[in-house]
């Protein structure tokens, strides 16, 4: 990789060696189906193959995606290959958009080798190959976590097939390289984009910003902000949230508060992730009052708390022995249909009893038991 490129000089920093790719094994799951005759993997395969004879059925992407997900959850990968191979008998197989969908389905099932095989077979199936199906193959590679294949695909296929990679191609490659921890290679790809007169967009920059912050390469993230400004790439709320989280992780409290205000002044409405970052900062500082203030701001601005919000706040309240606040938050979480770990809810019940607030504890247990969305199993500890 060349280190003399303009972008490389702008983002110069510590070299990071590519990280090792770890295979993620799929856990077995029992297949269920809304149709009574589709309770086994093979029954689902058979039903799908019959149904896909209908052109209207083949136009419904949802049918394909849900079936592949069910079979993948059951580790029935031969069934996935069976239903996709069956599609070769359909007239749609000459349509590049249809084949690209099949390639992506292999990717979602982490079956990259099958995706590549189908891509290579497209000429025999009398189906054209353009940058559209090339991008589908790249995405399948990404979804399959075969990040090591990305560079080879870029070196081999465009020249061989006379395909010009586009913005989507480069963004997919950069995302894959960032997930692999190969940030230097990702920056190289961004530089290659510009050599081919393809302008990076906010998706490109957000991917790199996120990777730089996760790798604690903060100076390069700052340099990329400067590059974005210079090249008139306008940051979005996601960009600002990445930087805000970076400041919080670096424990730059005053800078994080100032930056939050800057987000608002730029005309953006902070979202749940923005407020969660500020609450996380308060948790690190063990400052319950400040955390409550951010929670109240969140609610006042019409931003709904999520599971992470409630978990952080309830844990902080328990650590501060403020079980009144913890109980209030638990009730809010239950009524908002946000699942909280049973052990955390039990901790609040135990704390209320320990502080002689028996009726409050009983009220929380009763409310949790009435919750139909989540099955809480809370008990009242013995008390004097």
TrEMBL record:
InterPro entries: PPR_rpt, TPR-like_helical_dom_sf. Keywords: Repeat. GO terms for biological process: chloroplast-nucleus signaling pathway; mitochondria-nucleus signaling pathway. One of its GO terms (cellular component) is chloroplast. It comes from the Eukaryota. PPR repeats lie at residues 166-200, 201-235, 236-270, 271-305. Transmembrane segments: none annotated. It holds the Pfam family PPR_3. Belongs to the PPR family. P subfamily. PANTHER family: PENTACOTRIPEPTIDE-REPEAT REGION OF PRORP DOMAIN-CONTAINING PROTEIN, PPR_LONG DOMAIN-CONTAINING PROTEIN. This is Pentatricopeptide repeat-containing protein At3g13160, mitochondrial-like. It comes from Nicotiana sylvestris (Wood tobacco). The lineage of its organism: Eukaryota, Viridiplantae, Streptophyta, Embryophyta, Tracheophyta.
């Amino acid at each position: 990789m060349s280190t003399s490129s303009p972008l490389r000089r702008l983002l110069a920093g510590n070299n990071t060696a590519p990280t090792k790719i770890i295979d993620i094994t799929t856990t077995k799951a029992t297949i269920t189906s809304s149709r009574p005759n589709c309770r086994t993997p093979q029954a689902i395969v058979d039903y799908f193959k019959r149904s896909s004879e209908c052109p209207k059925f083949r136009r419904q992407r949802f049918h394909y995606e849900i079936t592949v997900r069910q079979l993948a959850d059951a580790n029935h990968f031969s069934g996935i290959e069976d239903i996709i191979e069956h599609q070769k008998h359909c007239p749609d197989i000459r349509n590049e958009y249809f084949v690209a969908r099949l390639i992506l389905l292999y990717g979602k099932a982490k079956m990259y080798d099958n995706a590549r095989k189908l891509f290579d077979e497209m000429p025999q199936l009398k189906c054209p190959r353009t940058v559209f199906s090339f991008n589908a193959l790249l995405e399948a590679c990404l979804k399959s976590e075969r990040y090591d294949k990305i560079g080879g695909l870029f070196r081999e296929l465009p020249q061989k097939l006379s395909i010009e990679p586009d913005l989507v191609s480069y963004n997919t490659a950069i995302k894959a390289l960032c997930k692999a921890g190969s940030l230097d290679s990702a920056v190289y790809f961004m530089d290659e984009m510009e050599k081919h007169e393809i302008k990076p967009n906010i998706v490109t920059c957000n991917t790199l910003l996120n990777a730089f912050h996760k790798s604690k390469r903060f100076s390069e993230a700052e340099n990329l902000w400067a590059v974005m400004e210079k090249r008139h790439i306008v940051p979005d709320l996601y960009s600002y949230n990445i930087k805000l989280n970076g400041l919080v992780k670096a424990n730059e409290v005053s800078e994080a508060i100032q930056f939050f205000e800057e987000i608002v002044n730029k005309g953006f409405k902070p979202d749940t992730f923005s407020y969660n970052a500020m609450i996380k900062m308060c948790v690190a500082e063990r400052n319950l009052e400040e955390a409550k203030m951010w929670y109240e701001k969140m609610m006042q601005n019409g931003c709904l708390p999520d599971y992470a919000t409630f978990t952080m706040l309830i844990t902080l309240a328990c650590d501060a022995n403020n079980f009144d606040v913890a109980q209030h938050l638990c009730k809010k979480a239950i009524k908002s249909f946000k699942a909280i770990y049973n052990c955390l809810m039990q901790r609040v019940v135990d704390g209320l009893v320990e502080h002689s607030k028996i009726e409050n504890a009983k009220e929380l247990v009763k409310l949790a038991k009435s919750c139909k969305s989540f099955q809480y199993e809370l008990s009242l500890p013995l008390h004097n």
